[in-house]
Amino acid sequence: MCNFVKMTILEIAKKLGVSASTVSRAMRNSHQISEKTKKKINDYLKEINFRPNPQASSLKRGSSKTIAVVIPDVSNYFFTLALNVIEEIANENNFHVLIYQTHENHTKEVEIINELCNGRVDGVIISVVGSLDKNFTHIKNLIQFVPVVFFDRVISEPGIPAITCKDYESGLKATQHLIELNCKKILFIGISEQVSVTKDRLAGYKKALKNNFLNIKKENILLCENEALAKESIKKALIHVKPDAVFSTVERYTLCLYSACNELFIKIPNDLKIISFYNSPTAALLSPPLSSISHPAFQMGKLCIESLLHKIKRGKEIHAENVTLDCEFDFRESSHSQKQS
After folding, report:
1. Do 270 and 228 touch, CB atoms closer than 8 A?
2. Is residue 84 within a helix (H) or strand (E), and if so which, with residue range?
3. 102-121 pLDDT, tens per residue?
4. Strand-pair category, 148-151 with 291-294
5. What is the pTM of this model?
6. How far is CA 78 from the centre of its chain?
7. Which residues contact 244 (CB under 8 A, 6 or more apart)?
8. Three-state secondary-structure class, residue 246
9. Is 40 exposed, middle or buried (CB count within 10 Å of its CB: 0-12, 13-18, 19+)?
10. Comparing C-alpha atoms, which of 137, 180, 148, 132 is closest to residue 13?
């Protein structure tokens, strides 16, 4: 019985000191690389008794009919809404959808993407993790193999379509709203600044402070990568910073914030005004009802899958346009303001 070695194309490329695309071309006997390089690669493949992934072959023939959606957390209501329409439109076009969760773990994201490089799918929709690790080599490698569309959280990569929201403008508007309510010490809550959405919302927050001649203080910016530690970090910030308002950019951290306020006997909105990115309909059911900023999740999911299917059908070299959508604001009791249109 033969023992086949389980290695990815990326692992083979690293071992031989060549690019992943070069290994792929050698396996296809492409004329784009030299005979010497092809021989070097193919000799090594024989040496390790490498067996190509049959799913990769189906991808080459265009018969996989499967796409992958890689997201941080399926329990986030925003991603749930977007996934519903992605699956619906994919199924209408006879495509299956594989859903991968990274759980905000960069190592997990790398593992998932490297697996997808082996040809399991025809295309990928991805929202990147909130990690301090700036290494996106795995995603750049993936782009060489299949069409990719960035979704909500993006990296700067020319030619790859991205469906996002106006995060900078929303951060500016949310902070300005709190300032107009006479708030001067506004706590910003987010995840890693390496995440595009946090970076843009924080830039909007800072711009609003500058516009109103308010100081930007490091102690007023709380970035929590680890959800397990978020509640304790938020609690400490409320005690030491003593903010009069909070602009939260993470839905699940806002629930931690409400809980911390309850434990510390901080009254919302009398002691602390809050506005948050929050897609779940439970925003209106919180006590007090939360002033929220929501993504157009349905529209974003629809544009993502339509863009990806277009690239799959027309060829991955097609560079679809980036789309940036408006967010919706609902001003409720938590920021002590009447609902506005």
Report:
1. no
2. helix 77-92
3. 988 888 999 999 888 876 79
4. unpaired
5. 0.78
6. 11
7. 183, 184, 185, 186, 271, 272, 273
8. strand
9. middle
10. 137
